[in-house]
Amino acid sequence: MEMDERKATILQAIIRNYLETGEPVGSRTISKYTDLNLSSATIRNEMADLEEMGYIIQPHTSAGRIPSDKGYRFYVDTMMEAKDREISEMKKVLIERQDKLEDMLKGVVKLLARDTQYASLITAPSISMNKLKFVQLSRIDDEHLLAVIVKEGNVIRNKVIETIEPLSEETILKLNLMLNTQLSGMSMDEISLSMITGLKVQAGSHSSVIADVIDAVAEAISAEEDLKVYTSGTNNILKYPELSDNSEKAGHLINTFEEKEGLEELMSTELSGDDGTGIQVYIGSENKVEGMEDCSVVTATYELGGGMKGTIGIVGPKRMDYDKVVGTLKSLKSGLDDLYKKDN
Amino acid sequence: MEMDERKATILQAIIRNYLETGEPVGSRTISKYTDLNLSSATIRNEMADLEEMGYIIQPHTSAGRIPSDKGYRFYVDTMMEAKDREISEMKKVLIERQDKLEDMLKGVVKLLARDTQYASLITAPSISMNKLKFVQLSRIDDEHLLAVIVKEGNVIRNKVIETIEPLSEETILKLNLMLNTQLSGMSMDEISLSMITGLKVQAGSHSSVIADVIDAVAEAISAEEDLKVYTSGTNNILKYPELSDNSEKAGHLINTFEEKEGLEELMSTELSGDDGTGIQVYIGSENKVEGMEDCSVVTATYELGGGMKGTIGIVGPKRMDYDKVVGTLKSLKSGLDDLYKKDN
DNA sequence: TGTTAGCACTCATTTAGTTAGAGTGCTAAC
DNA sequence: GTTAGCACTCTAACTAAATGAGTGCTAACA
């Protein structure tokens, strides 16, 4: 049995209808809905075939059909028509150009949640540059030293270091000079053990401070921590009976969003079937995050330039308005991408 | 009509029973539950009185009674016996002494949520000292300057400032010296306009940089931003039918927790009736945050020393195990308070 | 005067039974 | 290959009756 054009039309009609109503779709509905001019009986025959092929499912004997994961996948891959969506508010948010990246991300993800009515998330663009630009030590008081670590891309980290004995301004100046001549421009794997011991020897009695500083540098440089995830509209999960009827599952999902467990992986694994648009769709069990078997996830990768890539996406029920969501994500993605182009 | 001892005993029995079962409590139950040796008929008379006085409510004619807000309040104020609770895990979390305050707070709030099974939140200790310790300008590259602002209490803020023209190392050194001799030790309201203009004049051609730096200082010094709230266990809201049956309301609550709207106020308003334990209970409509009319909120103020006060608390249904919650909060509060004492 | 037994009454919840309707699969005719 | 027709299935909605917990009130009792 193979998929012919008529079967595809019928499948499309079933899915469209099911997305709209959420009710199983019967043969009579399709008979009227499509312009194939076929009677319900004929449709029934075709539907039996589609069920055999695994595209649709019958919840119980005397009900209509609903799409299976395979059915959704077919729809998304071949029949979806992404609606172009103008996010008018977006421009405001982006043009205001909040100087804190964090605020911008929060704004965008909030916008996405409001527009789609699905739980939304965004990852901060991850910095692939992990080189140290410079370190700046300053004396805070007799027991505390401040280490400011500036990475390539002007990402800044602070660390307060406790000192055993007070350090004079001159010593600090000397340490600063020493650290920067040796370390600046380095990435973590370039900083060898011998360099560290060398520095310690040079520092003499202050070697423990140097050790602490290098620890701080190492921590700051390893970029993992930067994979921060912001969420918005988690409460939308409750709007979809498929997800909220089982409050056990809904609670688990909400918890996942609050604790951000596993969301990084969700947002970072790239599906092989990426079609170049940067949009990816994961349907039901295609999704490997625990508790999301009944969800679909749609993500888009955006790029702020300089290799800074982040991901923005939504999590919703399998019965979701894919066309709208993909359209919205495309629009947001291009908005974010443009941000960089304009900037330069 | 006044509250005598017997009425109080009966009220207590009603509330205790209702907290356990969640079902309206009838006269017969009380007759057996208490050791007053009264028949159900007598209890009924007393219950009629209690209802007239506003301590209990009858959901419908032929049902038992449930406590009103006023009833809960009476219970909490005069009859509650906080169970002493040992949070064994807590020591681990606190002793590990995560060097980042943020991680510690997240750990504590997670613990609270796990222990109580209620939605939990914690505010970072707010720094009441808003004096500037020092400013440190560093050159990042030709167009960017880094301003590190250190406040009393060693709270640190960074700000990248764009410069119109490249600044030499000497200029930056000079600006640093100038800023610190003038500004260090100052609070915002001590920094007068004339001082600022004075600085600008001194800076000559670099006055715009000075303006930017002072803006950054002003922003950093105003402590508002420090009132960060961390949450955990929001999903517990779904565990309590009183809150989750109406998924509209539950969604709103979850949203409040995600966006942290209004939670700062919730955690910072101190009830007049504070009894010196630092524990506060808000029942139902006593609570002024939107959407929390059906909740009770219990908070505890902790102090990390040096005037750094924060608040930790839970939000749950009015029918909550007050004894347990208050016990847990007391335990956590004293754990946090001790943290500081040990430290010094 | 406070307490209790008894009784009629109320009302939410449960249970069972019925009905209505949507949809199917299959067969036979077109 | 398509369609009309029919028997069948199963859910959802509705109705009616039974259940039972709990009340308020009255009258009797100590």
Determine the fraction of residues in helical runs of chain A and give it as a percent range: 40-55%
Structural class of chain A, by secondary structure, is: alpha+beta
The beta-strand count of chain A equals: 10
Estimate the global geometry of chain A from the Cα principal axes. Answer: elongated
State the end-to-end distance of chain A: 55 Å
Mean pLDDT of chain A: 86
One letter per element, helices H and strands E, the order of chain A comes to: HHHEEHHHEEEEHHHEHHHEEEH
Radius of gyration of chain A: 27 Å
Could you provide a short overview of the structure?
The first copy, chain A, has 344 residues and is of the alpha+beta class. Helices cover 47% and strands 18% of the residues of chain A.
List keywords for this structure.
DNA-binding; 344 residues; 3-stranded antiparallel sheet; 13 helices; homodimer; alpha+beta; 5-stranded antiparallel sheet
Structural notes for this entry:
The structure is a homodimer of 344-residue chains. Chain A has 344 residues and is an alpha+beta fold. Helix content of chain A is 47%, strand content 18%. In chain A, the strands form three sheets. A five-stranded antiparallel sheet of chain A has the order 7-3-10-9-8. Chain A has a three-stranded antiparallel sheet with strand order 4-5-6. A two-stranded antiparallel ribbon of chain A has the order 1-2. In chain A, α2 (27-33) packs across α3 and α8 packs antiparallel against α9 (207-221). The longest helix of chain A has 22 residues, at 322-343. Chain A is elongated. The N and C termini of chain A lie far apart (55 Å). The mean pLDDT of chain A is 86. Chains A and B meet through β4, β5, β6 and α11 of A and β4, β5, β6 and α11 of B. Chain B binds a DNA duplex (30 and 30 nucleotides) through residues 24, 26-28, 38-42, 44-45, 47-48, 58-64.
